[in-house]
Amino acid sequence: MDVDRLVHEAWPAYEQQPHDGWVFRCAGGVTKRANSVLATGLPADLPGAIAAAEAFYAQRGLPCVFSVGPGAPAGLDEELERRGYALVDPTLVMSGTPRPATVPAGVRVAERPWREWLETWWAVDGRYGSGLEEATRICAGVPAWYAAYEEGGVPLAVGRGVPQGDTLGIYCMATLPSARRRGLGRAVLRGLVARAGGGPAYLVVTAGNAGAQALYRGEGFEVMGRYHYRVR
Predict the structure, then answer these.
(1) What pTM did the predictor assign?
(2) 8 A C-beta contact, residue 140 and residue 132
(3) Pairwise CA distance, residues 177 & 214, whole Å
(4) Structure confidence by residue, pLDDT tens digits, 50-60
(5) Distance (Å, whole) CA 174 – CA 125
(6) What is the edge-to-edge ordering of all strands in the sheet holding 145-151?
(7) Pairing relation of β-strands 167-175 and 201-206?
């Protein structure tokens, strides 16, 4: 799997500026993934490319962030560290071919996020204050499926599945704290896999989230790559 490309396409920044093989991405500061440099390949002028990235984000009042994944050029990570960029959010990429099944009882799957889905997701993952509008715009950037386990019309656990050719990208997995340890995240995951009809799938999870990693391993996913961010 081309992890850098898949993640870039599944969570698209609505402002993208190419620069010598890199892509400067901006989406109102919401999530580092959509507000970072996709640095794949070695530019002809590495210091010049870094300076151009810093200017791009400075003009938008944002910190300069680099996504350092499998496709990052050799020496970039060390150069950013030398310049004082901090390493943050080490992330695992897990992949597998989970068995397709029927959508579990209680799970709703739709082609657009509805208001309650968004509110549940943002209640768990909304680390960016008033950025829900920007996050919704990112979600709407590509076709996707939105799943939720509901009780009384209230989503308790949610997830997003992005069809990418024969591969399913799984994002936005979130369960309300009061509803955890009930298997609801597993039900949502299975609902997305069922909607996709099987085939290879991948997801990303922070390296420190051991509980989520255990759930995903139980569904047939294993670590196949890593990436992290460098933040000025």
Answers:
(1) 0.92
(2) no
(3) 17
(4) 999 999 999 99
(5) 7
(6) 15-19, 22-26, 37-38, 65-68, 222-231, 86-96, 201-206, 167-175, 154-164, 145-151, 107-110
(7) parallel
